[in-house]
Amino acid sequence: LRALWIGATGLTAAQTKIDTHAHNVANINTVGFKGKDVLFSEAMHRQVHRPNRPSTQVPGALEPQSIGGGALAVGTRTDFRPGAWLTTGQDWHLAIQGDGFFVVGFEAAPDGRAYTRAGEFRVDRDGRVVDPWGNPLLADNGRPITVPRDAVQVTVQRDGRIFAQMDDGDQRSLGRLRLARFVNPEGLASLGNGLFVDTEASGEPQLANRGGSDLYIQQGALESANVDLAAEMVGLITAQRTMQFAARVVQTTDEMMGIANRIYR
Amino acid sequence: VLRGVYQSASALLAFQTRHEALATNLANLQTTGFKAYRPALGSFARLLLQRRTGSGAEAVVGPLGTDVAVVGGKTDTGQGALRETGQELDLAISGDGFFTIGTPEGPRYTRAGHFHRDGEGRLVTPEGWFVLDEGGDPLEVGSDPVRVDGDGTVWSGSRRIGRLGLVHFTEAEFLEREPTGLFNAGPAAGEMEAAPGIVLQGFLEGANVDPGQTMVDLLATFRAYEANQRALEAQDETLRRAVNDLARF
Fold it and tell me: Which of A185, B30, B108, B151 could join B182 via S-S bond, C-beta 3.0 to 4.6 A?
């Protein structure tokens, strides 16, 4: 009885959706987090007629049609819409207005770089600007940004230029922040920790033209998660109900197998 | 009696298939653009019962059905619920019509409009197939934000990029269904025509499965299956008595 497997695909699909929503809700306070969504498609199906059956004489009846084989999660996608800004006033808390990404050095990635929207940076003991996991923030020249020891204040301009105010009153340029853009950000592969790497589907990273009104950097702010709690809850509830329906299918199929088994006693 | 046994057996198979179709509808409650299966049960060739009269002539008693089976079925092409997602490349069709998708096997049709760009800025499905324009070519939307009109015209700012290949079929409920959930234009689907529906940007169409009605159908199918098993049992019992008890004095 194939309906058992059809019900099972429904259970798996609903479970995937529940997992995704749970992940989104769990990250509601994660800086720069981008919500995910699962896309479903129909699974493989088959023709319902055995080929050796004669054509029917029922008026209006057509050639046999196929019926489905259940549902299948074809992939997840990331929602790259912006989250709300939290103003923190910290020098190395940066938020991006527009569709760019910070570029950080990440040794495990193929070209040594990863991309993130989470602008929660700090200065490590070597003076490098790093993300919470120690990956260095990269400047236009592809090198980490280093803050001199005797800097008292750092200013990050909207166009990404960084200036340090020194204790002797001098102002020194620390470089310019690199921002990357992608033709298809949804094609980026997620590495966890808010980091993404480019794939064939996302296209090559392009150097973003920053400083205009549609793409700039805001110092002293953090981008919060773009998770809509109400939408997540609705998604969770529908996924749960779908799961119950699928479970019912499994149950009725099981009972039908029992009935078939009772034909001969 | 033996005829009845086979009738009941065919009914068990038919209701089992119907149950599978309903199970698929339920499993796809969350599948974007899913269209419910409507399997049709029908009887097979009928026999004309005749009886011998005393004079040796034959008198017609009436027709007798011999078999029941799923004799095909169609797709419920009714509108699914439209859900606003706000995503730039989520497209839904309100009213009749299908998006045209370019697959390696040729053009296919779908109502599932969760599209995105590929690395080269072309509009693709989650499986990576191209969304075709009205000329049958992949639609290149580029990397800048686009706006989609109700008639499927895609704009980048004030520049017209192209128009989605939107089609409809006179007998859309008889479109062939492909293993991937896409529709294929078979001979039963009728003539291709312009799609009367309008395209909504930032929306997705949900499955058009009514879970309540489907559960009722599932229950009815289940009970019908059960009843046919009982009928089979009763006939088996009759046969047993005919074989074992009739000859006993």
Answer: B108
Residue A2: list chain B partners with CB under 8 A: 20
Return the structure tokens found at B191.
């003539």
Q: Among A19, A41, A77, A254, pick the best mutation site for testing chain B contact (most B Cβ within 10 A).
A: A41
Q: Who contacts A165 (Cβ-Cβ below 8 Å, separation ≥6)?
A: A151, A152, A153, A154, A155, A171
Q: Which residues of A touch B180 (CB under 8 A)?
A: 41-42
CA distance A191 to A189: 6
Give the list of residues 6+ apart from residue A128 with CB closer than 8 angstroms, or none.
A136, A144, A145, A146, A147
Residue A43 confidence (pLDDT) above 70: yes
The answer to whether the CB atoms of B23 and A10 lie below 8 A apart is yes
Mean pLDDT of B168-192: 86
The Cα–Cα gap between B31 and B45 comes to 38
Buried b (16+ CB within 10 A) or exposed e, A210-228: beeeebbbbbbbbbbbbbb
Judging contacts by C-beta atoms under 8 Å, the chain B residues touching residue A69 are 24, 179
Task: Kindly tell me if the per-residue pLDDT of A26 is higher than 80.
Answer: yes
Summarize pLDDT for B103-155 with one digit per residue, the tens: 998 999 999 999 988 888 899 998 889 999 999 999 999 888 899 999 999 99
In angstroms, the CA B144 to CA B121 distance is: 9
Within chain A, strands assigned E span 36-42, 46-47, 66-67, 71-78, 85-87, 94-97, 101-105, 113-116, 122-123, 129-130, 151-156, 161-166, 171-176, 179-181, 189-192, 195-197, 206-207, 216-219, 221-223
Q: Could you report the per-residue pLDDT of A108-124, keeping only the tens digit for each? A: 888 899 999 999 999 99
Could you read off the pLDDT of A69-86 as tens digits, one per residue?
Answer: 788 888 788 888 899 999
Q: Min CA distance, A137 vs chain B (Å)?
A: 25
Partner residue opposite A184 with nearest CB, options B39, B118, B229 = B118
Q: What percent of chain A has a predicted confidence (pLDDT) above 70?
A: 90
Q: How far apart are CA A24 and CA A236, in angstroms?
A: 11
Say which residue, B245 or B111, is predicted with more confidence. B111
Residue B43 identity (one-letter amino acid): S
How far is residue B63's CA from residue B86's CA, in Å, rounded to a whole number?
A: 59
Question: Among candidates A220, A228, A227, which has minimal Cα distance to A120?
Answer: A220
For testing the chain B interface, which of A42, A248, A251, A256 should be mutated: the one with the most B CBs within 10 Å? A42
pLDDT value at residue B53: 66
Q: DSSP 3-state assignment of A16? A: helix
**Upper half-sphere CA count for residue B60 (Cβ side, 13 Å):** 5
Residue of B nearest to A66 (CA): B177
Q: Are A32 and A83 in contact (CB under 8 A)?
A: yes
